[in-house]
Amino acid sequence: MSVVITVAPTGPIASKADNPALPTQPEEIADAVADAYEAGASVAHLHFRDSNDRPTADPEIARRTINIIQDRCPILIQLSTGVGLQVPFEQRAALVELKPAMATLNPCSMTFGNGEFRNPPNEVRRLAARMLDLGIRPELEIYDTGHLDECLRLRDEGLLGDSRVQFSIVLGVKGGMAATPDNLTTMVRRLPPDAIWQVIAIGRANLQLTALGLALGGNARAGLEDTLYLGKGELSPGNLPLVERTVSLTRSMGLTLADTAATRQLLIPS
Predict the structure, then answer these.
(1) Is the entire prediction scored with pTM above 0.85?
(2) Phi-psi domain of 100 (left: phi exceeds 0; alpha: psi -120 through 50; beta: other)
(3) Crossing angle of helices 121-134/145-156, nearest 10°?
(4) Phi, psi at 167, each rounded to 5°
(5) Transmembrane residues, as ranges (predicted)?
């Protein structure tokens, strides 16, 4: 099976003060995504920023960014409904009304760094139901073992549709699971046998755990949302080097890249 590579160019936390190459405005994000597509990425995981570079769920900013990207390349769009810790859940959830092919679904509230990531159970279920009504494929972001159990409850309640369930195993966020091989292998063992998944390793363990995830049969994600560095003390000069590194890693392991057609068939079955 081919490997899907997702580019995550921006994220909700880092700023240009952390890495000046971080894209925050629609044209910058579109440039980063188009470059990643040319390098081999087939999915773009999108966060948006306002004119002051703050995380936003403004639908006009989101729509403008998506339109610029789609004018540039045929990469598949996945919207984050996480958006940012200070953005109310109702505004975050409203992004699905743009009807992207895919969007993230966070099953649980949690401590996230020095903040609180609020995902109340009833609101999560309403969002899951709305995504199901709109035909939007959810990517379930799980930061701890109990998050997986909650996702399986959503599945059993019929809120995730009939297709194979798709997970992102997020490691390295303060408040969630540490970025260790043991935590990754434990989570992979507990996934449903037919699950589609990728590891998202935050920070210094990004490359090693991406390699382990590929070896275990997962997909991969790359970009400045997950790590600002190419190596110890070496800021990445953009998203492209991180994507190119992941593409090279994938190929060096004898794996093939999924193009957009193969990715659509896998992640968005009709």
Answers:
(1) yes
(2) beta
(3) 50
(4) -120, 150
(5) none
Instruction: State the CB neighbour count (10 A cutoff) for residue 151.
Output: 27
Give the pLDDT score at 270.
Answer: 73
One-letter amino acid for residue 247 of the chain: V
Residue 100: other Cβ atoms inside 10 A: 20
**1 has pLDDT over 80:** no
Three-class SS of the chain: CCECEEECCCCCCCCCCCCCCCCCCHHHHHHHHHHHHHHCCCEEEECCECCCCCECCCHHHHHHHHHHHHHHCCCEEEECCCCCCCCCHHHHHHHHHHCCCEEEECCCCEEECCEEECCCHHHHHHHHHHHHHHCCEEEEEECCHHHHHHHHHHHHCCCCCCCCCEEEEEECCECECCCCHHHHHHHHHHCCCCCEEEEEECHHHHHHHHHHHHHCCCEEEECCCCCCEEECCEECCCHHHHHHHHHHHHHHCCCCECCHHHHHHHHCCC
What percentage of the chain has pLDDT greater than the value 90?
A: 98
Domains of the chain: 2-267 (3.20.20.70)
